[in-house]
Amino acid sequence: MSDRPLTSVGRTKRRHDAVLKTTGAARYTADITLPGMLHAKVLRSPHAHARIVSLDASRARATPGVRAVLTRDELGETPGYGFFIKDQPVVARDRVRYAGDVVAAVAADDEAAALAALAVIDVVYEELPPLPDVPAALAEDAPELFPGDKPPGIVPPYGTGASGHLWPRPNVCYEFRYATGSEEVWEGCDHVFEDTFAFSRMNHFHLEPFVTVADVRGDRVELWSSTQNPFPLRKELARVLATDESRVRVHVPFVGGGFGAKNNCKTEPVAALLSRMAGRPVRYCLTTEEAFLTLSQHAALLRVRTGVMADGTFVARDSEILLDAGAYTDGSPLVAEKACYRIPGPYRWEHVNSTCSAVMTTTTPAGPYRGFGATQATWASESQVDMIARRLGMDPYALRVKNLKGLGEPFMPGDSGIDSDLVQGLDAVADELGYHERPAHPHRGMGLAIGFKDGGGVNKPAQARVKVTATGEVYVNAGSVEMGQGISTALCQVAAEVLGVPAERVTYAAIDTDTTPWDQGTNASSGMVVTGRAVQLAAEDARDRVLAFAASRLGCAPEALELVDWGVRKDGGETVPLPSLVAPVFGGTGYEFTGEGFFKAPNSAEAPLESPCVFWEIGWAGAEVEVDPDTGKVTVLKLVASGDVGRAVNKLVCRGQDEGSALMGYAQALFEEMRYDNGVLVNGEALEYRVPMAEDLPGQFVSITQEQGHGPGPFGSKGAGEGPMVPVAAAVANAVHDAVGARVRTLPLTPERVFHALRESAAAPAE
């Protein structure tokens, strides 16, 4: 990282979207209105699993105000959609696979007319056995959700030690495996511990609903969408609609939260097909309750087997992860590879062998969720690390420090080196928590955990363009979506720093796939490092063009000049305003200087995931809790969370990301859980789905934004916003164990689960 003083980067700057959002002037997709716009609603299956015997929509088509009705009869050859596997139909064809599956869609003059039409669609179902959870789906006599020929899919290329498999056995859509080292090391272990854990399913609970406005006229498809990945969405929608990608135009206004849910197709195919049928724009906006039926986080069952020496040295780890993928695959293969690869944690091992299977069940489809894969893996890994320490009579902090990888040490053979000092980060949290000086207190305890994930996306590229007007106004054009995380502000600060202008003079251009440079998507904390590097390079390109022009007018070499607030200074002397140089050459119409940038981490056949990790996103968490032994209620007295951002481009934005992330982990630890009864969701509405409220927050909450300075992004930055979420649940469970000697292995840590763990601990013989 450069040690030079920075004028814009690192200083607290007001967010570019602050005034718009605080005054209510910001426009979201839900605010888009087009002339003649229709409104869409869908009919959903009441059954978890059933065959569609017959479907009659004739009365719906005759309903006043109805302009288009979409059922399986209108689908024709329209293909399904998904990430790796194209298995989700726009509307159900032969069967429904979960309660909430879309059976038909209606576009009408208003929502009331659309709902009236849905009420008169006649569907006859033949109920089939549900597969409400992973054990039911893997049972020998379980029916297959996709019998016969399987939906088409791909296995991406992997490197050393990694492999992927499509449909390896019934109701398993994808399996990822990773192994390194020799199995023989197990024989030399002094102790082998095996433990199982269960991870709960959360709803993304973003405030802005899933919403699309589509306008399909002739051979042009134009839509406004609350999406995190406009360019992959454009590609997938073109495939579904059987049209050229160049015919699809995607606009992305502000997005009101996504947390991974708003990737790939959600509301877009229904809106686009209805618009094509009706010849008019269609708005399709889901309710909060429908969001629960659209996408969720993966529940998981995890088995971890670990071999250690008597002094606590880690030797070997075998892991088996079963993800509940729900009824359609969505991003499950991606989550499977991440969970499997991350479960060893940031520790040294002689041997690792991990398998992760994505299992199909008759529940809401599961997909990417903040920290995806790492949350499930860290819950099991960091819980077991604590359990092993206590079995060996060691302090959990000391066991971690003994085995943590060092700065620069490769995570796995062929991958990049760890770019945070893991012990330094752990010490920051432990010291703030008072971990080493804690006094004995009945029913109180402390716990630590380390969250670990690869950041920046696998093999992810991004382009950017920076334009500077003749008067020094700067426009950053890039594909990172502003969804509350502050990326538009941070990218503008990068350009401002390179060009030597105040950040207030830099504008982030609206995203439009017809004009915005290509970007793979706003996910995996990639905005700052991947898109940020593209913006930095584009700004440097624009700067070089400006300096070359100025040098030609001043009769000197470009190296002799520097940009200072849209002027050029030669050898530290007087600053010459650039407009005075531009006008004589280009006249009153002025001129715009444009720079282009592209960034992508290099591929490597040796890297397990095809390319070395761009950066490692680390989170550390510590919790102090008090447990009521009579009720099992857990009270978090203090929560400390920290992430290493390398170097903060905007410290306030980084802090907000870390704190929001940590509190989502806190919600996972104690509150949130989608509950099913024989495959039917029973708490899928805002009033029944338990999220933490203000009175539920920890007594003390401290966030520590570390700037260790080893990041590969602009000015030494790293991505942020996921790391501090990942370890919180394990830290709270570890603190509960420290307080009362009871280990809870299933999330969330409800009073009932803690109470039963206390009783089991009291009845069990000492380990």
Structure characterization notes:
The protein is α+β, with helices and mostly antiparallel strands. It folds into 3 domains: 18-26 and 460-600, Aldehyde Oxidoreductase, domain 4 (2-Layer Sandwich); 32-128 and 205-291, Aldehyde oxidase/xanthine dehydrogenase, a/b hammerhead (Aldehyde Oxidoreductase, domain 3, Alpha-Beta Complex); 299-457 and 606-763, Aldehyde oxidase/xanthine dehydrogenase, molybdopterin binding domain (Aldehyde Oxidoreductase, domain 4, 2-Layer Sandwich), CATH 3.30.365.10. It contains 18 helices and 30 strands. The strands form 7 sheets. The protein has an 8-stranded mixed sheet, sandwiched between helices. It has a 6-stranded mixed sheet with strand order 7-8-16-15-14-9. A 4-stranded mixed sheet has the order 17-26-27-30, sandwiched between helices. A hairpin with a 2-residue loop joins strand 7 and strand 8 (172-180). The protein is globular and about 90 Å long. The chain starts with 17 loop residues before the first helix and ends with a helix.
Tally of domains? 3
Name of the top-level CATH class of the largest domain? Alpha Beta
Query: How much helicity do the residues have?
Result: 25-40%
Tell me what portion of residues adopts beta-strand conformation. Answer: 25-35%
Number of beta strands: 30
End-to-end Cα distance, whole Å, is: 48 Å
Which CATH architecture of the largest domain is right? 2-Layer Sandwich
SS element count, helices = 18
Biggest sheet strand order reads 3-5-1-13-10-11-12-21
Form type: globular
Mean pLDDT: 95
Main β-sheet description: 8 strands, mixed
Specify the CATH homologous superfamily of the largest domain.
Aldehyde oxidase/xanthine dehydrogenase, molybdopterin binding domain
Structural class: alpha+beta
For this structure, the CATH topology of the largest domain is Aldehyde Oxidoreductase, domain 4
